[in-house]
Amino acid sequence: GAVVSQHPSWVICKSGTSVKIECRSLDFQATTMFWYRQFPKQSLMLMATSNEGSKATYEQGVEKDKFLINHASLTLSTLTVTSAHPEDSSFYICSAARDSSYNSPLHFGNGTRLTVT
Amino acid sequence: AQSVTQPDIHITVSEGASLELRCNYSYGATPYLFWYVQSPGQGLQLLLKYFSGDTLVQGIKGFEAEFKRSQSSFNLRKPSVHWSDAAEYFCAVGAGNTDKLIFGTGTRLQVFP
Asked: Under a CB-based contact definition with an 8 Å cutoff, are residues B10 and B73 in contact?
């Protein structure tokens, strides 16, 4: 089946530093990738939608300058948390789809646990 | 706006017992509905989905779900639960004409031997 690799699986960083999370589709080309944030014991909140070669579309309330998303190729999207603060600590999950139709299933990465100290 | 409600935050069942996880949605048109399972520290795995047609949908791992338009529900069922089914289960609805998903708050399933 289709595989999405997310790296790193966990990261600890100091407040004020930036962290990059990678999401790769290993065996298919992903036109669309999604980034979610999940707080403990809560649901996934969609942060942004990224399409290869174009700017990401952010959900309301998500700071574009803080959460930089790049989808430079059909197999890689990155999320950079800039100037991270403790409140950014969370579980970040990406998903990827071949295209934007509902018949194209979403494949999820295993998530990245970010802890900001 | 679309929304998904999972009324049960936590459910505990004995291994071998039947299971039903509830999901109610709010959406003006015919919804695209999904059930996902998440093991601790992992991403999500699709169990099943409903787009149209037969309202009883079969999924992986022995799960099924029934779409009931009159009740705006899409409950997940399994006749006999295995210990390996212990996980977090999320119901989701497709948001409009895009492929974005709106997730419910999840139901944590605990299975006792």
From this structure: no
Q: Which of B5, B44, B97 to mutate to test the interface with A (most CBs of A within 10 A)?
A: B44
Chain B residues with CB inside 8 Å of A109's CB? 43
pLDDT, averaged per 10 consecutive residues of chain B (113 residues), comes to 90 97 88 90 88 92 96 97 96 74 92 93
Sorting pLDDT into bands at 50, 70 and 90, what band is A59? very high
Instruction: State yes or no: pLDDT of A78 exceeds 70.
Output: yes
pLDDT at A72: 83
- The DSSP result for B63-109, as a single string, is -EEEEEGGGTEEEEEESS--GGG-EEEEEEEE-TTSS-EEE---EEE
Nearest chain B CA: its distance from A11 CA (Å): 13
Q: For residue A48, what are the contacts with CB-CB under 8 A and spacing of at least 6?
A: A34, A35, A56, A57, A58, A59, A62, A67, A69
Q: Which of A3, A25, A93, A106 to mutate to test the interface with B (most CBs of B within 10 A)?
A: A106
In whole angstroms, what is the distance from residue B112 CA to residue A32 CA?
40
Q: How far is B65 from chain A (nearest CA, A)?
A: 18
The two three-digit tokens of residue B60, written as one number? 């992986």
